[in-house]
Each structure stands twice: as structure tokens, then as C-alpha cells.
Amino acid sequence: MKREKILIIEDEPDILEMITYNLEREGFAVTSTANGEEGLLRAKREGPRLVLLDLMLPGMDGIEVCRRMRSDPVTSSIAVIMLTAKGEESDVVLGLGIGADDYITKPFSPKVLVARVKAVMRRGTVSDEAQPGDIIKRGVLVIDLTRHEAQIGGEPLALTPTEFKLLHFLASYPGRVFPRDHLISRVIGEDVIVLSRNIDVHIRSLRKKLGDHRDLIETVRGVGYRFQDVRS
Ligand code: CA
Known about the structure:
Elements lengths: L4 E5 L3 H13 L3 E5 L2 H11 L3 E5 L7 H10 L7 E7 L3 H9 L4 E5 L3 H14 L2 H4 L5 E4 L2 E4 L4 E4 L2 E2 L4 H12 L4 E3 H9 L7 H15 L6 E4 L3 E4 L5
Helix pairs in contact: 2-3, 7-8, 7-9
Bound molecules: calcium ion (CA).
């Protein structure tokens, strides 16, 4: 089996060593750097499946690294888990708003780290379930499951793995309303402790990327979300 690549961007040697040791023991191929700029270059060059990204880094910080990864089609689909210190909660929300898939608060145990890494990786594997050639068309929106790509009016959308899975899931059932908790269990995974409002953050970010077509995802007050009843 192919070893999944993980890139760690972390400037604290002790934490880096602990993460590297535990992920290698789980069979992942791990590379690392203590520098945000270099991390960004490596993400482009090495194409890891997931990046563990420290928030506080000298020079370019984790938020900026994540933002740049998301705005570049080469790196936009790489899963990102932010590593944050206690008391950085507002930064955490910002981190999710700019496209991080999850976050882990320091200090954390190896067990928690490995569980979260595996959970985020599972979320990003929509394409594994899809049959080759599976394409969903909903008006101007086209979702190509094999290529793990979504387009609006022929323009590719730079979606995070979580946003892609969310869009794919909602678009698979046009007109049907899903409560937030349902979306969390179906899209995010029940093994991750997620606050309901985090779904709202992912939806907000997804809508922003849909631009003029943001209304494709409708809010049903007091219930949740639904994809517009568009079937052609
Ligand atoms: Ca740091």
C-alpha cells in the first residue's frame, strides 16, 4: 500500500519530534520544516496528502500559509490541520474560515493526534467511493468525483477536502434538507468532536467560493441546509 505523505510545519523541536515519531510509527511518510515559506514551497513540490501546520511560526505564520495554500489550485485540495496553543480560539475560528479542515490544541497526546489525522484523511476520500466517470451536474455546477474537482460555469473551484465533500453530499440530494448534526456525522465524521457552528464556518466559506451562485446552498432556518432543487 502507498504510504500517505504528511508535511509538518512546526518550529518547536520537541513537538516536531513527538509528531514525527508517532506518525512514522503509524506508517506515514513524514517530512518537516520549521519555516512557513519553505513549508509552502514543499507543499507545492511534494504534494502531501495532509499538512500539520503550527499557527505561530517565525516569519510567515500558519494562517498566511493556509490562506496561500487554499488560493493556489496546486495546493488547495491538500488537507490542513492547524496546531494551536490554548487561548488562540479566535485564531482557530479564523483558521477554519480560511480553509483549515480541523485544529488540535496544544498540548495534545499522540493518540489524539493520530486519531484526528486519520479522521481528516478519511473525509477527503470522496473519490475513493466514486465510480470512475462519476459526474454530478446541477445547473452551472459540475462535480467530477474521479478527478476530485468542482467547476462553476467552467471555472474550477479551489475547495478544501471538507468543502468538496460537503458540496458533493448536498448536491447529491437536491431539495433535501439536512440538519447540521446530520451533516457533521455524514460529512465530517462522528469520531471527531465538532461544534455545530463549525459546519456553518465551512458552509460560509463554500458559499463565498460559489460567488454569484452562493444561493445554490440554502439555509433552512432553525434546521440546517439544503442544495437548491436543481436537477439538470
Ligand atoms: Ca510555534
